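Quick check before the chapter quiz. The format below is the same one you will see on the exam, so make sure you can read both the input and the output lines.
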Amino acid sequence: MRLVPGFLTALLLTLPGQPLLAADSAAIRLAVDEFLRTQVRSFPGKSTYSIGTIDASRLAGVCEGFDVSMGDGARPWGKTQVAVRCRGGTWTLWVPVQIRVVAEYLVAARPISAGQKLIDADVRGQLGELSDLPNGILMDKEQAIGRAALASLAVGRPLRADMLRQPTVVQQGQSVKVVGTGSGFQVSNEGRALTSAVVGQVTQVRLNSGQILSGVVRADGTVEIKF
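Here is the expected output.
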């Protein structure tokens, strides 16, 4: 699965021609509630939220409406803040909120060694509170299977994206097939990899002629060079 991108969507709560809104706590709370209600619909599992104290006593003027958004880099859940901007005014108020998401995430189903390529039996789902977990937690087996562990992982360890890497498909010194493509042509050759590389990574290859070229490693272990 993929995670919700950006979290900068503004919820516009008034339409042209509607009365101006006073900067009072109740109106602001309603705007935040409507924003969060929309936000959590795209979250996995079951979501609940609570809104912290709102003090609008020092906010001056009236607003055409309220634009509510998550701050740049804010976590999608857990203890965080949302920004409430007075449309037509000059102020922005940060409101504390807590979003709880209970959903299934991936953990190690058995001990995993460093460098081990994960298969289906190595991972399993576990139900839990996502806000208690670090960023980058994996929730879809496709995000883990086929990748290699950067370090040893104990049973039950939650899996994060930064714990895994694409497996090495070309080893230094390995004989590889080199495919060169250009406008209307394709040629192939044999060579020896000068560096190890994962899928999508650039590696250097010394051709049998002695020429050294750089190309991108593909899933089948071939090295593609574009002219």
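If your answer matched, good. The helical segments are 25-39.
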